[in-house]
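Action item from last meeting closed. Structure (692 res):
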C-alpha cells in the first residue's frame, strides 16, 4: 500500500476566519493543482481547489494535526489552468484577501451544490449539447467594413503587439463613434484565426446584448458565451464549463468574467476601461480592468483597453510608455461631434421660489426646434425620483431616513418617500409629521419632476424617462430603448443610464440640466467622472453623418468659466487629462500615490473609530512605517446606513510595492485587534479605492 500524499487545498473561508493559507488534505493519488474537489471542513463538506504546493501565500499555517482525506475529486473536469491559479493568487495578495475566499468567490456558485457525479452528468449533457448545436462553420463570412485609416493603424499596432513575446497593453483612445468596436472585432478575428480565445469585458450588463449581437453577427461560425449576473445559476455554470473545456471562442461579460478560465486565451478587450463599474464593491474589491492588465501580462497576451475618456491611471501609464497609446480622433462615416454650448445660468433672473428656471430660453428653443424637425433629444440629470427631499416651511421638518444619514427621496408616481441607501419606504404623508402643516413641498428636482415639467413646457412632445426606477422591471429597459430607436420618442429624459453606449441614430441634441455639483465634490475623482459622463453624453448626438452638422450639446451651468467645461467644448480629453494630472501630482493623489482605505462599521460610531485608532496605533510599530501615511479616521459622505455607522481611514504611499508589503504585515494584526473591539460589526480593507 502506498502512503497517501499531502495536497494543499484552498476552501472558501473569509479572511477573518484565519484560514489564510491552503489546508493540507490527504489523497491516494497525486492531484494536479487546479483540480476541483470536495473536502471535509469541520462537520461540513465543501468545495475546494487543489493548490500549488509551496505557493507563497501569506498568513500562518494551521496546525497540521491529523490530516483528513479528500472527500471526492471532480475527475471529469480539467484542472483550472496554471495561469488561472496565478491570477487568483495575485488578486488575493493584492486585494488582501485569503486565496480561498477570492478563488471560490469567482467560481459559479452552482459548483458548490454538486457532487462529482452530478457535475460529471451535467458536463456530459453539456458536451452533447455543444456537439449538437455546433455553430455552422461553413458559409460566407459576413461583410466587414473597410477600415478607416485610424482603425487600420490601430489594428497594425495590435498585430505588432500580438507578435511580441511580451506584448504591452494597448490603450485605444477613440472618440465615441470612431469605430473602436470594429477594432475589437478585427483583433478578435486574428486571435480566433490563430486558434486562441478572446475575452471581452464590458462595464455593465445592460451593454452586453448589443455587443454580444455584434460579435455573434461577425463570427457566426464561432461559439460565444456571456458571463454576467443576469444569467441563471445553471446558465452561469454551463457557460463557465464551456469556457474551461475550451469550447468557447469568445467570452463576453462583466467584471466577474476577468476570472473566466480560458485554456487558450489570446486577447483581452476591456471596453470603456474608465468605467467605475469594473471595480467590485464588496468582498474582494478587485478592479477587473487592473486584473485584466495583470492577466495579459501573466499569459503574455495583448490587452486592448478602449475608451473615449480613459482613466487617468491608464492615461498616465500611456504617457510613461508603459502602455502603447493608439489614437482615433475621427468619427467613421464623417459624423462629427456635437458642438458643445455652455449656458451661464447666473444671468437668468431668479423666480419667486428662489430657484432659476428649469431650462434656459435658448435651450428650450433648441428642444422645440428638434421636435419640429422630427429629431430626438436627450435630457439628463443625475438624480432620480421626483425631488431629493420634502420640506415643511413652518417647522423645518425634512424627509430624513430614520435609519440613515440621508434624505428620503420623494417618488411622486408611487406616492412614496424612499431611502435610496437602505430601501426604507413609506407612503408620502399628507401633512407634516411634526406640526401637521398641510403645505409640505419638494425641494430640488429629480428625473421624475424633470419629465413632468418637460411635458408642461413641450405639450406636443412624446417624452420617455429612463432611470433605475423606470427600468426596474424585466424587459423594461429594452422596450424603452426600442421605442427610442423606432422614433416613437421625441425627448428621452434620464440619469446617466441614458448616456451609456446606446447607439441612438436620431439624436441631435443633448442637454445636461445641472451637472455642476461634481465640480466641487469632495471626491477627487468627481471631475474625472463628470468629464467622462459629459463626453459620453455628447457622444450620443450626431452619430448620423447627415444630422451631425447641426447636432449640439447644451450644458446649463453656473460656472461657465471652469476649465473642465473649456476642455469639453474643445472635445479635448488630452487637455483635461493634463490639467487633472497636474493637480493630482501636486496634491500627491493617484496615479502619483497609492491608496488603501480601511473601513469599519458599528452601531456606535465611537466603536468604529476606536478600532481605526487602534489600527493606526499598531501601524506605527510596523517596519516601513515611514513609507506610508495613515490619516485620521473620518466618516464617509453618508455615514449611517441602515442604522450602522461607518468610519474610514485612508492609507497612502508613494510606492505601490511598499504599500503592498506594509498592508500584508498589517492585516494579520488587524484580525487580532478585532477581538478587542466587541461592538464592531464589520471591517474591510479596500485597495485602490475608487471613491474616498
Ligand atoms: P465606437 O465603439 O468607437 O463608439 P463603433 O465601433 O460602434 O464605434 O462604430 C460606430 C459605427 O460605425 C458603427 O455603426 C459601426 O458599425 C460603424 N463602423 C465602424 N467602423 C466602420 C468602417 N470602417 N466603415 C464603416 N462603418 C464603420
Ligand atoms: Zn412642519
Ligand atoms: Zn435609509
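Sequence:
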Amino acid at each position: 500500500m502506498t502512503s497517501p500524499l499531502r495536497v494543499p487545498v484552498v476552501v472558501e473561508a473569509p479572511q477573518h476566519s484565519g484560514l489564510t493559507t491552503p489546508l493540507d488534505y490527504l489523497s491516494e493519488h497525486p492531484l494536479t493543482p487546479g483540480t476541483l474537489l470536495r473536502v471535509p471542513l469541520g462537520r461540513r463538506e465543501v468545495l475546494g481547489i487543489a493548490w500549488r504546493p509551496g505557493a507563497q501565500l501569506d498568513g500562518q499555517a494551521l496546525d497540521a494535526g491529523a490530516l483528513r482525506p479528500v472527500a471526492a475529486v471532480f475527475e471529469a473536469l480539467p484542472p483550472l489552468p496554471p495561469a488561472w491559479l496565478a491570477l487568483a493568487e495575485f488578486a488575493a495578495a493584492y486585494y488582501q484577501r485569503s486565496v480561498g475566499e477570492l478563488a471560490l468567490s469567482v467560481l459559479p456558485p452552482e459548483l458548490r451544490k454538486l457532487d462529482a457525479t452530478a457535475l460529471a452528468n451535467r458536463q456530459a449533457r453539456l458536451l452533447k449539447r455543444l456537439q449538437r448545436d455546433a455553430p455552422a462553420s461553413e458559409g460566407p463570412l459576413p461583410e466587414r467594413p473597410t477600415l478607416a485609416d485610424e482603425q487600420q493603424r490601430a489594428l497594425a499596432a495590435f498585430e505588432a503587439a500580438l507578435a511580441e513575446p511580451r506584448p504591452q497593453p494597448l490603450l485605444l483612445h477613440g472618440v465615441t463613434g470612431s469605430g473602436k468596436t470594429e477594432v475589437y472585432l478585427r483583433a478578435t478575428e486574428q486571435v480566433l484565426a490563430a486558434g486562441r480565445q478572446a475575452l471581452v469585458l464590458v462595464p455593465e450588463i445592460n451593454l452586453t446584448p448589443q455587443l454580444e449581437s455584434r460579435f455573434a453577427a461577425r463570427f457566426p461560425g464561432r461559439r460565444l458565451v456571456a458571463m454576467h449576473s443576469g444569467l441563471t445559476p445553471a446558465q452561469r455554470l454551463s457557460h463557465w464549463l464551456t469556457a474551461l473545456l475550451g469550447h468557447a471562442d469568445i467570452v463576453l461579460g462583466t467584471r466577474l468574467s476577468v476570472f473566466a478560465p480560458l485554456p487558450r486565451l489570446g486577447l483581452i478587450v476591456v471596453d470603456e476601461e474608465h468605467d467605475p463599474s469594473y471595480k467590485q464593491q464588496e468582498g474582494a474589491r478587485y478592479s477587473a480592468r487592473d486584473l485584466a492588465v495583470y492577466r495579459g501580462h501573466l499569459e503574455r497576451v495583448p490587452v486592448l483597453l478602449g475608451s473615449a475618456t480613459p482613466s487617468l491611471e491608464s492615461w498616465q501609464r500611456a504617457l510613461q510608455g508603459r502602455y502603447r497609446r493608439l489614437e482615433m480622433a475621427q468619427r467613421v462615416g464623417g459624423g462629427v461631434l456635437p458642438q458643445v454650448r455652455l449656458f451661464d445660468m447666473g444671468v437668468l433672473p431668479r423666480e419667486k421660489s428662489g430657484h432659476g428656471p428649469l431650462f434656459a430660453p435658448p435651450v428650450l428653443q433648441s428642444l422645440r426646434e428638434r421636435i419640429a424637425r422630427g429629431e430626438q433629444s436627450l435630457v439628463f440629470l443625475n438624480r432620480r425620483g421626483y425631488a431629493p427631499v420634502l420640506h415643511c416651511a413652518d417647522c423645518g421638518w425634512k424627509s430624513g431616513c430614520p435609519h440613515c444619514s440621508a434624505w428620503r427621496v420623494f417618488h411622486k408616481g408611487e406616492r412614496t418617500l424612499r431611502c435610496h441607501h437602505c430601501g426604507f419606504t413609506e407612503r408620502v404623508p399628507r401633512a407634516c409629521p411634526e406640526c401637521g402643516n398641510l403645505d409640505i413641498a419638494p425641494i430640488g428636482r429629480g428625473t421624475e419632476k424633470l419629465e413632468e415639467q418637460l411635458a408642461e413646457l413641450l405639450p406636443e412632445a412624446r417624452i420617455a424617462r429612463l432611470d433605475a426606477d423606470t427600468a426596474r422591471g424585466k424587459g423594461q429597459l429594452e422596450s424603452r430603448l426600442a421605442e427610442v430607436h423606432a422614433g416613437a420618442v421625441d425627448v428621452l429624459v434620464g440619469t446617466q443610464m441614458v448616456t451609456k453606449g446606446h447607439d441612438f441614430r436620431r439624436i441631435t441634441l443633448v442637454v445636461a440640466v445641472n451637472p455642476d455639483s461634481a465640480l466641487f465634490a469632495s471626491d477627487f475623482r468627481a471631475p474625472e467622472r463628470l468629464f467622462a459622463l459629459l463626453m459620453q453624453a455628447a457622444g450620443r448626438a450626431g452619430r448620423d453623418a447627415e444630422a451631425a452638422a447641426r447636432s449640439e450639446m447644451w450644458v446649463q451651468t453656473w460656472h461657465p468659466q471652469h476649465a473642465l467645461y473649456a476642455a469639453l467644448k474643445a472635445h479635448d480629453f488630452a487637455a483635461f487629462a493634463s490639467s487633472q494630472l497636474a493637480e493630482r501630482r501636486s496634491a500627491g493623489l493617484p496615479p502619483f500615490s497609492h491608496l488603501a482605505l480601511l473601513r469599519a462599521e458599528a452601531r456606535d460610531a465611537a466603536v468604529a473609530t476606536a478600532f481605526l485608532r487602534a489600527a493606526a496605533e499598531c501601524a506605527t510599530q510596523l517596519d516601513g512605517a515611514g513609507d506610508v501615511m495613515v490619516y485620521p479616521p473620518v466618516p464617509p459622505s453618508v455615514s449611517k446606513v441602515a442604522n450602522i455607522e461607518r468610519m474610514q481611514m485612508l492609507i497612502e504611499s508613494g510606492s505601490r510595492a511598499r504599500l503592498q508589503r506594509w498592508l500584508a504585515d498589517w492585516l494579520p494584526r488587524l484580525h487580532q485587534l478585532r477581538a478587542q473591539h466587541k461592538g464592531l460589526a464589520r471591517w474591510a480593507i479596500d485597495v485602490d479605492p475608487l471613491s474616498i
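Note appended to the action item: The CA atoms of residues 153 and 326 lie 8 Å apart.
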